[in-house]
Amino acid sequence: MKRNRLITRILALILVAVFIITSATEAEAKTKKTKISSSTLEKGKQFTMVNMPYNGTKSIIKKYKGKKLKISTVQNFAFTPDGKYMFTTSECRTGSTKHTLLCLVEVPENRGKDEKATCLDAMVLNKHGHGETIDITQPDKSKEEYNIWVATTPYKNKFGKDIERITMAVDDGKMKIKKSVKITGFEKGNVINGKAAKFDAGYPLRRLNLSIDEANNQVVFRVQFMSGVNYTAYNFEKINKALDKLGNNKSYNITKAAKWQTANLRTNLVPYNNFQSFQVYNNVLYVCGGHFKKGAQIYAIKLKTYKEGKSKLDQKYDMKDVSRVIDMELKLTVKPEDAKEAKTFTKKNLEVEGMKLKKNSNGKLDVYVYFMLEGKYTNAAGKSGMGYQNASTSIYKFEVKP
Q1: For residue range 100-122, what is the model confidence (pLDDT) as tens digits?
Q2: Are the C-beta atoms of residues 231 and 269 closer than 8 Å to each other?
Q3: What is the C-alpha separation between 107 and 47, in angstroms, rounded?
Q4: Which of 107, 236, 242, 289 is most buried, judged by most C-beta within 10 A?
């Protein structure tokens, strides 16, 4: 009798183990893996940015309000909808105060490894912080006038916690701000039973990003606290119209838009536990992360949407919730125009920074990425200590199925 009981228990344990293994395998199978080879990245080189600001005597911008600027690498970028320009954001400092450096770059007609994109103008956005957030919309494509969405009001002089929409005109290669409005109050960007509320998170709010999918009429904010991250989606047209009604330098509190919220996802999923950028496309979040010595990946995470004002909190914490992992093989060869020789960079000294998505004519997604290059080189004149990031910053592209 005891032997039969023992056998029964053993069989039960075996069945449980089989169930667990099968479940794990099924969960793993749900996550598609896409490998982007280094040769694909190299072939997808779009252009190299030239005349970018740097810490040198020939920089197009060297001071701000009479103080010397310390300029860091590009953190993110976005193309104008008309395809004429690209704007980049980076961190710059006067003393210990962090600002965002906004650059206007003219995009070449052709794309390829030998093409150059010239920086035409640079502007300091006062006390805007690290400069990792940017997206661009264009109300009227017949005018060179763009709405540039960036983060501002940095938490402890680091990452922004408000969003600013800057209406920027481009005239003869120069930027001119026509209007500026802000979205504030993201501490209460949660919605419970149709009403604005605080998040169940470790306050304070310390980092804010956004992405706009105009084709899907959606804007998504990434709200990061000391503990916890929420992605909240809204009707973009209604948010944009509310900002249009504001006077210059006025602000709009996001709590007023609770009735337009369509999604609220809580997740800490990010490659290598180091967030760099994100984009939303057709209700899917593409979260880009990476770090020196680790690598660069993009997680695709589906966003569950609801009727406006009826959003509910969804939570995703497991890799089974990632529908796809896009893994980039990091090995790029770079040679600045004034360098004696080329140098090959690997994940040891490459870090992904910005990322953007665009649907192409084949119905697939073009993924554009930018990498920070760590290291120095000696130019042809024999001057050592030259920085790569401002002499050979490039945009790379590859294609994936959405």
Answers
A1: 999 999 999 999 999 999 999 99
A2: no
A3: 8
A4: 289
